[in-house]
Design a protein that fits this description.
With about 160 residues, the chain is mostly helical. It is built from four helices and no strands.
């Protein structure tokens, strides 16, 4: 019985090998078609870049791939620069907002100090004005009492 099993395995292995040999060119052909299709898509997507560098020349697949790598590298560098600039702008904006808030706080403190000074100054001047008004009133009263006209008119008895 052993020879029969070996013969059956050999036939099935031969069949698999034959199937594999027949499928391999088809699979390879499909793989090459996928590669060619992707390269054509890259060429059409990056067409203007290719025309800038090599107008009127037939581009090989390797050229298309190299130019694509170059273009993507430039794009990546630009993105990094834009991120750095954006971070810098954000830092400057937050810093300027802090500075603005500090300036506003300083201005508010200065204004408050000025208001306090004006208030204390006006209280002093009001007190001085009240005192001068009081002293002038007192002096007027004293001069009226001493004046001969007023003293002649005043006779309580």
């Amino acid at each position: 019985m052993t020879p029969t099993i070996t013969a059956a395995m050999t036939n099935s292995q031969e069949h698999l090998t034959l199937t594999h040999k027949l499928r391999k060119p088809l699979v390879e052909k499909l793989r090459r078609e996928r590669i060619n299709s992707s390269i054509e898509q890259l060429k059409s997507l990056l067409g203007p870049e290719f025309l800038k560098q090599q107008p009127d020349s037939k581009l090989e697949k390797a050229d298309i791939l190299e130019m694509t790598v170059c273009f993507l590298t430039q794009l990546q560098q630009q993105n990094q620069q834009q991120r750095r600039l954006l971070n810098l702008v954000n830092k400057l904006q937050s810093s300027s907002e802090k500075n603005l808030m500090e300036q506003q706080n300083q201005q508010q403190r200065r204004l408050l100090n000025l208001v306090n000074k004006l208030q204390s100054s006006s209280e002093k001047s009001l007190m001085e004005a009240d005192f001068s008004l009081l002293s002038s009133t007192v002096q007027t009263c004293i001069t009226k009492e001493k004046s001969p006209v007023n003293s002649a008119l005043w006779r309580p008895w």
